[in-house]
Design brief:
Largest sheet of chain A: 2 strands, antiparallel
Strand content of chain B: 15-25%
Number of helices of chain B: 10
Distance between the termini of chain A: 49 Å
Radius of gyration of chain B: 19 Å
Strand order of the largest sheet of chain A: 1-2
Shape of chain B: globular
Number of domains of chain B: 1
Number of strands of chain B: 10
Shape of chain A: globular
CATH architecture of chain B: 3-Layer(aba) Sandwich
CATH class of chain A: Mainly Alpha
CATH architecture of chain A: Orthogonal Bundle
Helix content of chain A: over 70%
CATH class of chain B: Alpha Beta
CATH topology of chain B: Rossmann fold
Radius of gyration of chain A: 18 Å
Largest sheet of chain B: 6 strands, mixed
CATH topology of chain A: ABC transporter involved in vitamin B12 uptake, BtuC
Largest interface: A-B, 24 and 37 residues
Oligomer: heterodimer
Number of strands of chain A: 2
Number of domains of chain A: 1
Helix content of chain B: 25-40%
Distance between the termini of chain B: 31 Å
Order of helices and strands of chain B: EEEHEEHEHHHEHEHEEHHH
Chain lengths: 301, 264
């Protein structure tokens, strides 16, 4: 039971990260590796600010802003400098490693004794897992509600159409550069927001904590959509959040079987490989990869 | 309405593969003209349309639409003047979005996209009526993703989208070429109906010589990036396919070698 509760807590904390990956991967149809650096960025900003005496909510909000900024960089590299999305993401991710070290000042910041959103909930009498489940659920529900609204606005429509059919949406008078930049910002903002909460739960930020983010995110998206469907935007958003929980439960069960936590990255890769064995998922990944290797702003679909 | 002046289009400039696709096109289309465009493979038909829409920026020359110089304007800015239907039925709609969402996107062509709801109840009723007029059974499928539509249904939908808000210019790039003959005829019929009802100015590339002669009030023929034939009014009405082939041979000094054009 405790194992499941722990997995549920982790899954909900990471759900918003998976939704961020969903936006770039699924809505915009590009593989954005900014996620890896961005995850550390969100956690780094939060822990640095909390240890400097800032309010945890403000620190969490700052992480969101940091993520948006990272997304802006990748978006500009891709659209204005016409660098393929995959490479643009790698460039930002690599650069972020140094930026993150600058922000954090060292490679690891602990906030175990500081006041965080999780510690505040724990002080009110909750167990740590329950605190994570509640804060993760609240954040995920708010994010899903926001995105459901956003993707049903005029602007949201043009973002979705941009990922779907560049030719069509340009012919309808939409500046696809703006849509792409906005989408990549949104995705990375959410990733940083999620990692902020994760660092408050873990009680630390570490320079290498973002490694593997994209694999975990993609696994959550694919598992979620395979199991829970993708009939509409709302359906997909909920499916991805649940996919994140399911992913953690599977990981927890595998660890229970005797693998140890050093094997985590290997397990997550294998899990994604298994998820990719579903033909539909495999087909999509190859399409997105092809798309991501294309020069930004190129007109050929 | 549309004016192309000395338009040149070169691709891969400075490489061994340099191609000079449009070689000084001069074309003036008046308001209300329905121009059909024919020509063999590689004549520059699609390239000319892409030059007008801004899909490709031209190497030399100027393009004005309704009096304003759009030569340097990017594609998305010109969209407010232009409705378009592509050859590939998949290109005209966002396939993961529903019929009504696609219509709503086109309904806002050339307008800034805000944070208002992407579609309103009033619009939905309007779309239902417009789709019912198409008589393709789409009026009951507003929520279906367009990926589930047939090629003909998609082209009809794209046509409807392209004719919203009376565009200054309707550009059709072999929009029936990918359809079976029966569907192609139906879509062509709808095209003529929409253009006439809305009194649109249109340019239609086609490989079907009979369509090119039957439809519209003006016909131009492209060959190797130049306009070699420009006929309108009564002169066009009197022409038949053998005449046209004859004129092609005279004007180009070559025989028509395009099977697709001859057989259709």
């Amino acid at each position: 039971m405790n194992v499941i509760l722990g997995a549920l807590a982790q899954g909900l904390l990471w759900a918003v990260m998976a939704i961020g990956v969903y936006i770039t991967y699924r809505i915009l149809d590009i593989a954005d590796l900014t996620a890896e650096g961005c995850f550390t960025l969100g956690a780094g900003i939060t822990c640095k600010l909390i240890t400097s005496g800032f309010d945890p909510f403000i620190s969490t909000f700052a992480a969101l802003l940091g993520g948006l900024a990272a997304g802006l960089v990748t978006g500009l590299l891709h659209t204005k400098l016409k660098i393929p999305a995959l490479l643009a993401g790698i460039l930002t991710m690599t650069g972020l490693w140094s930026v993150n070290l600058r922000i954090m000042g060292r490679s690891n910041i602990a906030i175990l004794r500081e006041t965080s959103i999780i510690s505040m909930l724990v002080e009110s009498g909750l167990t740590k897992n329950m605190a994570a489940i509640i804060s993760g659920t609240v954040l995920t529900v708010v994010v899903i509600a926001f995105l459901w609204w956003f993707f049903n606005t005029e602007l949201g429509y043009s973002l979705r159409a941009t990922g779907n059919n560049l030719n069509m949406i340009r012919a309808q008078g939409v500046n696809t550069d703006t849509s792409i930049i906005l989408g990549v910002m949104l995705g990375n903002g959410l990733i940083a927001l999620s990692s902020s909460l994760v660092s408050q739960f873990n009680g630390f930020a570490d320079i290498s904590m973002g490694m593997g983010t994209i694999v975990i995110g993609l696994a959550s998206v694919i598992i979620g959509e395979v199991v829970f469907g993708r009939r509409s935007i709302l359906n997909s958003l909920i499916a991805v959040a649940l996919g994140s929980v399911l992913y953690r439960i599977i990981i927890a069960l595998v660890l229970k079987l005797g693998m140890n936590s050093n094997d985590m990255k290997l397990i997550s890769s294998i899990l994604l490989v298994i998820a990719l064995c579903f033909p539909a998922a495999r087909e999509q990944v190859s399409r997105v990869l092809k798309n991501s290797l294309r020069k930004g702003g190129s007109t050929n679909a | 309405m549309l004016k192309l002046t000395n338009v040149h289009q070169k691709f891969e400039i400075g490489t061994v593969n340099e191609k000079h696709v449009l070689c000084g096109i001069d074309l003036h289309i008046n308001e209300g003209d329905f121009v059909t465009v024919i020509g063999g493979n590689g004549a520059g038909k699609s390239t000319m349309l892409n030059a007008v829409t801004g899909t490709n920026m031209i190497t030399e020359g100027t393009i004005t639409i309704d009096g304003s110089d759009v030569t340097k304007e990017p594609e998305f800015k010109r969209a407010k003047y232009i409705g378009r239907v592509f050859q590939d039925p998949r290109m005209g709609t966002a396939s993961d979005m529903s019929i009504e969402e696609n219509l709503a996107i086109a309904y806002r062509r050339g307008k800034p996209r805000t944070l208002k709801w992407g579609i309103t109840h009033k619009e939905r009723e309007e779309y239902k009526e417009l789709l019912a007029e198409l008589d393709l059974g789409l009026d009951t499928r507003l929520k279906d993703k367009t990926r589930f539509l047939s090629g003909g249904q998609r082209q009809a939908l794209t046509l409807l989208m392209a004719s919203f808000h009376h565009p200054k210019l309707l550009l059709l790039d072999e929009h029936t070429a990918a359809l079976d003959p029966k569907t192609a005829a139906k879509v062509m019929e709808l095209t003529v109906k929409l253009v006439e009802e809305n009194k649109l100015t249109a340019m239609m590339v086609t490989h079907n010589m009979r369509d090119a002669l039957r439809i519209g009030n003006r016909l131009i023929m492209l060959h190797k990036g130049s306009i070699i034939l420009d006929i309108s009014g009564d002169e066009k009405k009197k022409l038949n396919v053998p005449d046209l082939l004859d004129m092609f041979e005279k004007a180009s000094g070559e025989e028509m070698d395009n099977d697709r054009m001859l057989l259709s």
